[in-house]
Amino acid sequence: MKQRELGKSGLMVSEMGLGTMSFGPKIDEKESFKRMDEYVAAGGNFFDTANIYGRSPSGNSDAGDSERIIGRWLKETGKRGEIVLASKVGFPYPGIEYGTTKKQIKEECVKTLQKLGTDYLDLYYLHTDDFDTPMEESLGALQELIKEGKVRHIGASNFSAWRLERSLAICRENGWEPFCCVQQRHSYLRPKQESVFGQQKYVELEMKEFIKDTGMTLIAYCPLIKGAYGKKNVGVPGQYISEDSRIRLKVLEEISKESGISPIQLVYYWLMNSSPSAIPLIAPSTWEQFQEAVGTLDVNASKYMQRMDEAADGNLGPDFRTPMYF
User: Fold this and answer.
1) Contacts of 120 by beta carbon, 8 Å cutoff, 6+ apart
2) Which of 43, 94, 269, 322 makes an SS bond possible with 301, Cβ 3.0 to 4.6 Å?
3) In this predicted structure, what is the pLDDT of residue 232?
4) Which residues of the chain have pLDDT under 70?
5) How many domains would you assign to the chain?
6) Active-site residue among 53, 229, 240, 304?
7) First to last CA, the chain
8) Whole-model pTM above 0.70?
């Protein structure tokens, strides 16, 4: 697995990251250990977690099982020095309110380090853009963590482009280290305009141009839209039901039949090779899903990229005009 730099930080990470949100109630510790073993054996080094990951679907259990499981794996394997470890702060969980105040950022970082069994994070994200806390306060708290050696680099998640630009200005004014990456909801299918995902943000044209201009790295979460491209198609969520999505799914199906490359691999390939390119977070729950994901690294779909990019440009003929219902 190749590596690439996060922004201009000097931090090198794998071209595919390992998403660990399901570690805990959805994927037990034994299976979680297998996924980490498989990922590292494939040359991966980029673990992505958060202080809220690992709660039961009912929400009755405490957050943090994902971090605890990773921590036990790191202790058992002794591989902390080989792993680029990323976590996040900002969303609420039982006993902790929403927000990125200085107090919350610093207290939650200490808890995260304890659960992970490490004394530093390679990357620490603001998981959400807290408008009720001055951005200077949140960024200042992150800078203190960097000075204290608890955090090496910082990132943002679920931010809009203009707020990221504001963060860069604040960092320039204060001589602070800026965000090196932004993690957003991003996939081949595009949400309908003005779609709402709670406090999650998806990649829009403005964000793409911002990333190209600044050199900030894009990290894609939910790249498979929870199974929308799989063999056991679970359906396309309402935010994505559109003529644009219908055409894109049709093109994926056609290219897959022509090339023998699975739709899932085509989506991963497109994310890693489009402009701006993204680091997709893979979150396989089985060996077969893991093999399909990393198998993307062995395919070459370059001759299909333009066709995928232009899938909804209106020039694909009459067969694409009949409505499709999901």
Assistant:
1) 113, 149, 150, 151, 152
2) 269
3) 52
4) 56-63, 231-234, 313-326
5) 1
6) 53
7) 36
8) yes
